[in-house]
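Dear colleagues,

As part of the handover before I leave the project, I'm documenting each prediction I ran so the next person doesn't have to rerun anything. This entry is a single chain, and its sequence is reproduced below.
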Amino acid sequence: MTESVVKDQPGAGRLAHASSDHPPVPRAKVGVVLANLGTPDATDYWSVRRYLNEFLSDQRVVDYARWKWQPLLQLIVLSKRPFSSGKAYRSIWNKEKNESPLLTITRAQTVKMTARLKALYGDDVEVDFCMRYGNPSTKSVLTRLKEKGCEKIVFFPLYPQYGSPTTASANDQAFRTLMKMKWQPYIRTVPAYFDHPIYLQALANSVQEAYAGLPTRPTKLVASYHGVPERYLMQGDPYHCQCQKTTRLLREQLGFSKEDVDTAFQSKFGPETWLGPATVKHVAELARQGHKHIAVISPAFSSDCIETLEEIEEEIRDSFMAAGGETFSYIPCLNDRDDHIEALLAVINNELAGWLPTR
């Protein structure tokens, strides 16, 4: 991949024709970064506030003019919200590891992906993960990979559907890091993969396995996606269309009828109109229509997190039960399931074409 080196120390060496005082140069490799949303470092007020400040200051997430939004954020939102968010995080926190489930799961995904890629490419590849907000930061991971000799990096935001507040924001942060590097690695970003056949099969497998383990079959499967303001759709963001297509492709993969599966959106924030129907209201309406047992799946999330483990498993479940529902079945995200890892591996291998031998 680069000029030959004379080995001086493990993983590094001198360029073959360089002077004796030339600094060691690591052997050229390809890096793969799995990028997820992020998590606070702890559940106390200040840890949650730091995380929310970074998250809600991102203009991909809240795109109001900074002079309007920042006073509201700093003086009102961040005075109150860390208390409620901290309580929500405490209800799902991985106490054994003292970290959020999102961090635990993303690390587990990375461990499995490392094993898969090492088996294919040996020491020619380095795998790591980063968070858009919180730790490990995008900057720290990309810098570390560059120092390890990764001259080329596949940067993989773990969002099946492209969204400006998610995929684009993750890519933005990667590019900001590159902007400050004297010697930038070549970088490839991974496109949306919601329609990849192996991903859809893994998603269908998770539904079929969940249904097989239930005493009664749900009369409705609700695919709940994280919401965005409705105007994003009008401004050209493809997220809504890709969510709707994900539901259709999943339904077809399962062989379900249109009446068996609904699409809804959760996590509304702020006063403007968001994509709908809102999951929390939709499940209550299903209960009032006579549906006693429903299942909910979250195809926009690659890992279970506060939006699934707290919002769906608590708030949305409570809404359904309070309206007359009897059985609420949440189908976990694909997390580190082997078929999910194989789907992500297929996507990565496609992006590695020309950089590493075809496998």
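DSSP finds eleven helices and eleven strands in the chain. The domain at 197-331 is CATH 3.40.50.1400 (Rossmann fold).

All the best with the project,
I.
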